[in-house]
Amino acid sequence: MDTSLLNSAHSLDAKHVVHPHTNLRTQPEKKPLMIVKGDGIFVIDDEGNRYLEAAAGLWCASLGFGNARLAKVAHDVMTEIGYYHIFRGAGNTPTAELSAKLSSIAPEGFDRVLLQSSGSEANDTAIKLVWYYWNGQGQPQRRKIISREQSYHGTSAVTSCLTGKPKFHEGYGLPFDGFLYAAMPYYYRHGKPGESEQEYSTRLAEELEAMIIAEGPETIAAFWAEPVLGSGGAIVPPEGYFEKIQTVLNKYGILLVSDEVICGFGRTGNMWGSQTFGMKPDMITCAKALSAAMQPISAVLIGERVYEGMQVQSDRFGTFTHGYTYAGHPVAAAVALETLKIYEEMDVVGHVKSMEPLFLAGFEALKDHPLVGDSGGVGLLGAIEIVADKVTKTMHDPSMKVMAIFEEAAMQRGLITRIILNRIALSPPQIINADEIAEMFARLRAALDDTLSQING
Fold first, then answer.
1. pTM to 2 decimals?
2. In degrees rounded to 5, what are phi and psi of residue 400?
3. Using CA atoms, how far apart are residues 153 and 308, in angstroms rounded to an integer?
4. Closest residue by Cα to residue 115 from 77, 152, 85, 154
5. Is 329 helix (H, G, I), strand (E, B) or coil?
6. Out of 34, 258, 357, 412, which could bridge 281 as a Cys pair, Cβ 3.0 to 4.6 Å?
7. 380 with 267: CB under 8 angstroms?
8. Can the peptide bond before residue 227 be classed as cis, meaning omega within 30 degrees of 0?
9. Could you give the CA distance from residue 344 to residue 135 in angstroms, rounded to a whole number?
10. Are 201 and 188 in contact (CB under 8 A)?
C-alpha cells in the first residue's frame, strides 16, 4: 500500500476520529492500529503485520474478516432497492424473510421480531417495551429494572444505566433512578470458602429476592441478564444459577430479558445462550453475529406474553409509536439472512460443539501458568484471570501495568485478545478450526511467558 496514503490516513485519524474507550487527550498522539485487510480469523495491519484475532473484533466477527458471498448479497440489494423503511405498514422482502427465519430458530413462542440497528438499540427498545407492557397491564408503577454488577447492555443514555459498570456512568449524570444492580455471578472471586457452586447460586438468588422485597415486588418490571457476562470478563454462571434466579422472578411475575448480543448464534454451543443455561426469557435481544458484523443490525425477539401486552397498548393508542429510520434496512436484513443461511450450511452450533473440547482444554492447560488464576469458558467464549498469587487470588499492583505489558506482548506474538481489568477474554470467530485453536493458545502462552519474564525483571 502507498506509504503516503497510510500517512494521510494516520493524520486524518489523529485530527478527526473520536475513538471510543480511549483517552481523548493522548489518543491523537498515538499511532492507531490501522487494520486494512482480513483473512479468515486473521487481520492484517497497514505495516503488513498479521494477527490472529481472538476477540472476533468486538465479539462479533463470527465468520471472520472479509466475505465475498455476503458482499455480493449487499451489492445486489443495493442495486435493486438500496433502501426502504418498515414504518406505517410498509415493508421489504429481506426484512420479512429475515424475521421469519429468526422466528424459526428462536426458542418456542418467539414469533414476533422487531428489527433495530445495534445491540444498544435493541436493549433500549426492549426497556421501552417492558414499560409499555406494564402500563398496558394497569401496573405503571412497575418501572424498576434489575441488571447485574459489571454487566454490559449498551451505551445509549438508558442502556448505559442498564450496564452495571460504574465507568459507563461517570461524568454523564447516570444512572437514572430505577436501575438496580444485583451481584454478578462470579464464583471464582465471590464464592465463600467451602461454598459449592450450587450453594453460591442459592445465595445469589436469596440476595435477589431480598432486593425485590426491599424495593417492593410491585415496582419491579424486569431482570436483565447476559447468559455469559461478556464485557464483565467472559464469566460463565455457576451451576444452578439461572434456574434459581428464574424461580424468584416467576414468584413475583417479573419479566426476564436475555441479552444475547454476544451469546447468540451458536457462541455458547447452542443457538442461544439462554438455551445453554436453561433460561426462559420473555424477550431476547441479539445483534453482532446476526450479520457476522458485516452490517449494523439487531433484533428484539418478543415472546407471546409481551407481544399480547403490546397489542393491548396499540389498541389503546391506535398505533405502536416506535421505530428507527434504518430498522429493517433491506441491505442489512439481506446480509443477515444470508449469514443465517451460512450458519445453517456450516452447522455453526455443531461446529462450535465440536471445537469446544479443544477450546476448553486450552484453558485447562493454562491453569499451570504462574500468572493464571481462574481459567475456563463455554462454547467458544472464555477467559483467564491474571493474578499475583494463585492461593490468595491477589491481583498485581496497578502501578506494575501487567495487563498493558501482556497486551503488548500478545501483539508482538501476533495475537489480539480482549482485556477486561485483569482478565483476558477469547471469543474467536466461530469458523476457527482445531489447528487455529492450538495456534491461538500457543501464542497466548508465549505472551504470558513474555509478560512473566518482563515483570520479574
1. 0.96
2. -75, -20
3. 25
4. 85
5. coil
6. 258
7. yes
8. no
9. 39
10. no
Residue for grid cell 434456574 = 243
The pLDDT tens digits of the residues spanning 301-356 come to 999 999 999 999 999 999 999 999 999 999 999 999 999 999 999 999 999 999 99
Distance CA 413, CA 445 (A): 10
In the structure grid, which three cell numbers stand for residue 99, read together? 424475521
What CA–CA distance (Å, rounded) separates 212 from 296? 36
Distance, in Å, from the CA atom of 264 to the CA atom of 259, rounded to the nearest integer, reads 9
CA–CA separation, 121 and 134 (whole Å): 20
CB atoms closer than 10 angstroms to residue 12? 10
Instruction: Supply 174's cell numbers.
Output: 447516570
**Number of other residues whose CB lies within 10 A of the CB of residue 353:** 16
- Measured CA to CA, the distance from residue 184 to residue 230 in angstroms comes to 12
CA 448, CA 362: separation in Å to the nearest integer?
Answer: 14
Q: Name residue 51's beta-bridge partners.
A: 43
Measured in residues, the chain has a length of: 457
SS3 (DSSP) at 451: helix
CA 164, CA 183: separation in Å to the nearest integer? 10
**What angle (nearest 5°) sits at the alpha carbon of residue 335, between those of residues 332 and 340?**
125
- Taking only the tens place, the pLDDT of each residue in 84-139 is 999 999 999 999 999 999 999 999 999 999 999 999 999 999 999 999 999 999 99
Pairing, β 42-45 against β 50-53: antiparallel
DSSP of 179-230: EEEEPP--HHHHPPTT--HHHHHHHHHHHHHHHHHHH-GGGEEEEEE-SSBT
Question: What is the spatial distance between Cα 247 and Cα 254, in angstroms, rounded to a whole number?
Answer: 10
Burial (CB count <10 Å: 0-12, 13-18, 19+), residue 213 = exposed
